[in-house]
Amino acid sequence: MIRNMDLIRAIVLAIREHEAKPSASEVQTLISYNENEVFAYHIVLLTQSAMVTGVETGTRKDRYGISSLALSWSGQELADNLLSDDVWASAKKTLEDAGLQSASFEIWSQVIIARLTKLCSTAASPAMEP
Fold first, then answer.
1. What is a single Pfam family found in this protein's UniProt entry (predicted)?
2. What is d(CA 60, CA 53) in angstroms, rounded to the nearest whole number?
3. Half-sphere exposure of 120 (CA within 13 A, CB side)
């Protein structure tokens, strides 16, 4: 199965915006994603990477058996970097233009951080008048 960075972004931002610690099923409903196996795979990727923590319930009350999803410190950092739709679209275009849609997470992060850095330096430039 191929990692879908749009889905990763949607999951991380949904967890960030939820007032309580949602279950995997609640997140899936929030983002209106219908492919159960693909969604489950991405939840596993996020928990394996320690971006997201969760409690395995051991029951099928929740379709995935995972409740109390929360972002770790690195997950919060990721969410902060993924907030801007413009930055996200720009990073995706950069990687697509380079033929790197399936680049490593580290490359995605570097491109997103470069976009954010450029945005910050552009915003700071006019304020540097004597």
1. DUF2513
2. 18
3. 7
- What's the CATH number where 12 sits? 1.10.10.10
Who contacts 69 (Cβ-Cβ below 8 Å, separation ≥6)?
A: 15, 21, 22, 23, 24, 27, 43, 52, 53, 54
Block residue for tokens 């330096």: 121
Mean of the pLDDT values across residues 28-52? 92
Distance CA 105, CA 121 (A): 24
- Amino acid present at 44: V
Q: In which residue are the tokens 């991380």 written?
A: 12
Q: Which helix H or strand E contains 85, and what residues bound it?
A: helix 85-97
Q: Is residue 130 part of a domain?
A: no
Q: Residues 90-100: what's their mean pLDDT?
A: 90
* CA dihedral of 38, 40, 44, 50, whole degrees rounded to 10: 100
Domain count, the chain: 2
